[in-house]
């Protein structure tokens, strides 16, 4: 494979192609094995994390505050030393081959930390230089235009709003054309409109082949964006699954029908609906997929009438991803 | 070698200095001028000559060295402390930059600023007293060595410090006294007997002596001793920096 196979633009193969490393081309974007971290204070932040993130996917790391999300990201990016385990970025060990690994990775940390007195353009050019690349006006202009920062390129960072600073930090991370992008709480404290813009940007990046790993505690965000979701709690990965899989669990709804007069068994007419009899025969419960059309409810209600059951009250409830998430996190304690 | 990163760090640091270039120049030039007025004219008028050099000219190398040392420590420490304080250090730590490259960028920029200030003080001094430089190449070598070594010391202070108070601690309580007692205003053999031995434990004495020798060909200690002490100081500073980056001391949890 030669460099000419891959034009030097955003793309998952860029780093490997640049080095002509065929083995690295096939490795997952990120691969963690047995990663643990115990801080000097004795706090165990991560325990035995095993995780593979495929190229070109959007992966959401969910977890309550202090679960270890940021520690995991900081280990991958070189801000925190791991206590044990190995991490590879596109096949490159993050310690032994830190140059190859880090040049593929862009990081947007959670906290808004900017050089107050620098201009937007200067700080973004600086980032590109740090990552060992020559100046590229066209690329920097594209990044700044994509983030609606081009008109403010000459402004000092301290004069920018919080939302703009957040975008500057994203621009810095994109300045060196990373193939793996970490977004740590990208929409914390960001207004609704900007949040939607951010989601669009993330989708565009994914289309161009960038692998995106984001942490969030807005579950809605994971629902909206992610291909796969990993839930982390107390330093352990509790579950890693396709979002659609989790959405299937999420989409589960329960309809409870309170009956005027208790019954001892489900009438034959209603057998096809897969009902469950409630306590004391005073109610029946029907579990269904939220995405399903409403005909099944309609026919159930008709059949209830046909069976001569009189309905006293109806109640529906939905198991949210939040509930799934909370129950997963609780199981851990 | 990530040359683009070295260049980026160096240019970033120099740009930061040039933004407040007026301030960073006015203060050393003003204080040097004041030293000349007080020590050179007021007191120097009562001292004839030291080792065959007029007192006003005698203090020039020491004054330059004193300013260069204090400026180096403060530039070197601020350059790395500020991103730590602001949190922007994350970017340096996550970049494909080795510690050697980071040190060359930060310490190189701090030393450059000190050298510029040293040259400007030299020019200022030329307005007050006639100057002669016997060994110009050695003069430059001492200026560069002192700037680099003390910028490196500043870099270490900037990583060690956890508050602005601590950042000011070493320059004020260690470097300034050592510089004042480093033979700027006197020759070592003007001191009472026992003190002549005590000052030999002050590394700045060797720097000032060597630097003054490059001007007037007279020295308190031998040239070899001067070079040896600076070399030792440089080696210790480099070893400390190496240890800092190897362990991630105060940089990585």
| CATH secondary-structure class of the largest domain in chain A | Alpha Beta
Structural class of chain B: mainly alpha
Shape type of chain B: globular
Low-confidence spans of chain A: pLDDT under 50, at least 5 residues?
Answer: 1-20
Spell out the CATH superfamily of the largest domain in chain A: P-loop containing nucleotide triphosphate hydrolases
Tell me what portion of residues of chain B adopts beta-strand conformation: under 5%
Secondary-structure map:
The complex is a heterodimer of chains A (333) and B (253).
Chain A: H1 14-19, H2 22-26, E1 30-38, E2 44-53, E3 58-62, H3 69-77, E4 84-89, E5 92-93, H4 98-102, E6 105-108, H5 120-130, H6 137-146, H7 162-174, E7 180-184, H8 192-207, E8 211-216, H9 219-225, E9 228-233, E10 236-242, H10 243-250, E11 252-259, E12 276-277, E13 283-289, H11 295-306, E14 311-318, H12 321-331
Parallel strand pairs in A: 3-8, 3-9, 6-7, 7-8
Antiparallel strand pairs in A: 1-2, 1-4, 4-5, 9-10, 11-13, 11-14, 12-13
Helix pairs in contact in A: 5-7, 10-12
Chain B: H1 3-19, H2 21-43, E1 49-50, E2 53-54, H3 55-86, H4 89-94, H5 99-128, H6 136-160, H7 164-180, H8 193-198, H9 203-216, H10 223-247
Antiparallel strand pairs in B: 1-2
Helix pairs in contact in B: 1-5, 2-3, 2-5, 3-5, 3-6, 3-7, 3-9, 5-6, 6-7, 6-9, 6-10, 9-10
């Amino acid at each position: 494979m030669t460099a000419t196979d891959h034009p030097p633009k955003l793309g998952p193969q860029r780093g490997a192609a640049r080095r002509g490393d065929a083995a690295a081309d096939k490795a997952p974007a990120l691969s963690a094995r047995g990663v643990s971290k115990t801080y000097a204070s004795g706090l165990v932040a991560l325990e035995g994390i095993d995780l593979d993130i495929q190229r070109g996917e959007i992966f959401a790391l969910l977890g309550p505050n202090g679960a270890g999300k940021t520690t995991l990201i900081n280990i991958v990016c070189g801000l925190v030393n791991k206590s044990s385990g190995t991490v590879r970025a596109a096949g490159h060990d993050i310690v032994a081959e830190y140059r190859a690994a880090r040049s593929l990775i862009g990081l947007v940390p959670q906290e808004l930390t900017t050089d107050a007195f620098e201009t937007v353009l200067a700080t973004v050019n600086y980032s590109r230089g740090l990552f060992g690349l020559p100046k590229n006006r066209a690329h920097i202009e594209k990044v700044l235009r994509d983030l609606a920062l081009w008109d403010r390129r000459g402004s000092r960072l301290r004069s920018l709003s919080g939302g703009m600073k957040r975008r500057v930090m994203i621009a810095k991370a994109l300045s060196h054309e990373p193939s793996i992008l970490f977004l740590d709480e990208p929409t914390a404290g960001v207004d609704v409109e900007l949040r939607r813009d951010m989601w669009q940007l993330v989708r565009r990046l994914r289309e161009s082949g960038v692998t995106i790993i984001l942490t969030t505690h807005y579950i809605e965000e994971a629902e909206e964006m992610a291909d796969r979701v990993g839930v982390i709690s107390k330093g352990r990965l509790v579950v890693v699954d396709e979002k659609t899989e989790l959405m299937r669990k999420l989409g589960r709804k329960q309809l409870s029908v309170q009956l005027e007069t208790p019954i001892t068994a489900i009438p034959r007419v209603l057998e096809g609906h897969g009902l469950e009899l409630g306590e004391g025969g005073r109610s029946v419960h029907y579990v269904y997929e939220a995405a399903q059309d409403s005909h099944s409810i309609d026919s159930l209600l008709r059949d209830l009438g046909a069976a001569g059951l009189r309905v006293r009250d109806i109640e529906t409830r939905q198991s949210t991803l939040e509930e799934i998430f909370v129950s997963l996190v609780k199981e851990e304690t | 070698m990530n040359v683009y990163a070295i260049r980026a760090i160096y240019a970033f640091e120099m740009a930061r200095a040039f933004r407040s270039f007026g301030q960073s120049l006015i203060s050393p030039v003003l204080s040097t001028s004041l030293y000349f007025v007080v020590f050179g004219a007021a007191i120097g008028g009562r001292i004839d000559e030291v080792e065959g050099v007029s007192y006003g000219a005698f203090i020039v190398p020491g004054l330059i060295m004193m300013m260069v040392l204090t400026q180096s420590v403060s530039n070197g420490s601020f350059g790395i402390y500020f991103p730590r304080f602001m949190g922007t250090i994350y970017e340096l730590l996550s970049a494909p930059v080795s510690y050697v490259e980071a040190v060359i960028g930060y310490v190189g920029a701090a030393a450059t600023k000190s050298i510029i200030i040293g040259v400007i003080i030299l020019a200022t001094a030329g307005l007050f007293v006639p100057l002669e430089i016997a060994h110009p190449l050695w003069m430059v070598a001492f200026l560069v060595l002192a700037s680099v070594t003390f910028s490196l010391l500043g870099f270490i202070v900037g990583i060690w410090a956890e508050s602005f108070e601590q950042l000011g601690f070493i320059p004020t309580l260690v470097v300034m006294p050592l510089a004042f007692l480093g033979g700027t205003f006197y020759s070592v053999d003007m001191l009472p007997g026992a003190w002549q031995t005590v000052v030999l434990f002050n590394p700045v004495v060797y720097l000032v002596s060597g630097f003054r020798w490059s001007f007037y060909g007279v020295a308190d200690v031998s040239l070899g001793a001067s070079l040896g002490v600076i070399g030792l100081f440089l080696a210790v500073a480099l070893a400390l920096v190496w240890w800092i980056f190897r362990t991630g001391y105060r940089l990585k949890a």
